Amino acid sequence: MNYISTRGAGPVSFDEALLSGLAPDGGLYMPEAWLGLPQDWQASKAVPFQDFAFMAAKAFAGDCFTDTELKAAIDRAYGGFDHPEIAPLRELEPGLFLLELFHGPTLAFKDFAMQVLAQLFDLALEKCGQRRTIVVATSGDTGGAAVEAFAGRANVDLFVLHPDGRISDAQRRQMTSVDVPNVHNVAVEGTFDDCQRILKLLFADEAFRNEIALGAVNSINWARIMAQTSYYLSVMVRLGAPAAFSVPTGNFGDIFAGYVAQKMGAELGPMVIATNSNDILDRTLVTGTYKVESASPTLSPAMDIQIASNFERLLFELMDRDADALNAAMAEFAASGELQIPPAALTAMRELFKSRSISDEEILAEIRFAYEAYGVLIDPHTAVGLKAAREELPAGKGPRVVLATAHPAKFSETVEKATRKLPEVPARLAARMEAPERFDRLPPDEGAIMAYVRARI
Ligand SMILES: *Cc1c(COP(=O)(O)O)cnc(C)c1O
User: Fold this and answer.
1) Domain locations in the chain?
2) Of 333, 382, 390, 446, which residue is most buried, by most CB within 10 angstroms?
């Protein structure tokens, strides 16, 4: 399978798309065509999670790696998860499920893709005898997942940019308490959008990009989307009916993986874009205009995002993969902060997705509700998904699945505020909360970040 950029560059091979992350023309890599799943993919209900991960990896990366390599990489990737089912389903009431995606090393769903990505990076870099410098922007959880996955790897230097003071204590400590020479943490004095903007500028600077062999592992990296399709596939098989999904959404990566699962042939029910009060995606669906406003801090910080990078992938699809038209649209967006969704694309979008924006008050009320009604403590991101599911998906029309994207102990302050109960802290997080931290603070300026990176590789 080859990959093309949403802005027209390519085609390139899977390992090229994997190692660079962002296409040289500033676009995002997409598979040249959609591949179907094997005919018997739904045959058994007792399939281990790893088999679905393999199915997805083989479909999209099978040209570059052997089945044996992919299977071993996936086994290593999920070896550090602390639940035998990897992604267990918890039934809250008949037909309403939480899909628990927080049993990985950093207790958030980002581990699912990042662990696979690190394994594939190792394989690909060893084959070509190269190194990469990875710079990642994080709204909280990607950074920890990347640090955990890439710490100590021989062929990678990792730089993590997080917005200073805008992530939870637990999130920060998961990144900054890992003391290994190939990991560098930077607290950027700005928002996540600043971090993401700087990352894009580093990529846009061709000389710098080549000088440091820059790679991206943000959700713009196709391999992350690929890895995340596996839990949609696994849920479809376990429930044996087209399930509707409610997905707490920031960068549009996790929910786009659901779209990809559909393109591979899985029959999903409706999907809900569940956002917090940073509601650009919800507004877009309602008004037809994708318009940036400033990001404001909420109780679900991993979704405090205005510019949802992966939305470009959906636009590319719904504009019939017309890279010229998309280029024009993205240029308009870059210039004015506003993009009119073409009418046909908007209609298609409304058929594919429902959406709901959830306020901080609703988040607190939903955490309380889940505790009182089901005896379950949920994190604020999951609360956004649960509330959106209960509002947008009528009960009794097939299973409803809420993606539980983080462990409540990662956001214990908010959970305690809502319920007066402190979530139990898993041992691996507790250990991190004690360890010394290591990070540097820098202004939201690409020059400062470039100099910092240069000095350290
Ligand atoms: C990253 C994150 C999200 C949003 O995922 P996207 O792929 O950016 O849409 C939701 N919840 C948690 C806990 C996260 O870390």
Assistant:
1) 89-105+222-419
2) 382
Q: Is 381 in the pocket of ligand 1 (CB under 6 A)?
A: yes
Question: pTM value?
Answer: 0.95
CATH of 89-105+222-419, one of 3.40.50.720, 3.30.2170.10, 3.40.50.300, 3.40.50.1100: 3.40.50.1100
Asked whether the predicted pLDDT for residue 47 surpasses 90, the reply is no
**Amino acid residing at 274:** A
DSSP alpha helix (H) spans, 177-275: 192-204, 206-212, 222-239, 253-263
Which residue is associated with the tokens 């959609």?
34
Q: How far is the CA of 219 from the centre of ligand 1 (A)?
A: 10
Place of tokens 């109780």: 299
Residues 131, 19 contacting (CB under 8 angstroms): no
What percent of the chain clears pLDDT 90, i.e. is strictly above it? 85
Q: Is residue 186 within 8 Å of residue 194, measured between CB atoms?
A: no
The response to whether residue 304 sits with its C-beta less than 6 Å from ligand 1 reads no
Catalytic residue among 45, 58, 71, 110: 110
Over residues 110-142, the pLDDT tens digits come to 999 999 999 999 999 999 999 999 999 998 889
Indicate the helix (H) or strand (E) that contains 274: strand 271-275
142 CA distance to ligand 1 middle (Å): 8
Residue nearest atom 10 in ligand 1 by C-alpha distance? 248
Q: What are phi and psi of 428, to 5 degrees?
A: -70, -25
Q: Which of 115, 164, 114, 123 is nearest to 140 (CA)?
A: 164
Distance CA 108, CA 101 (A): 6
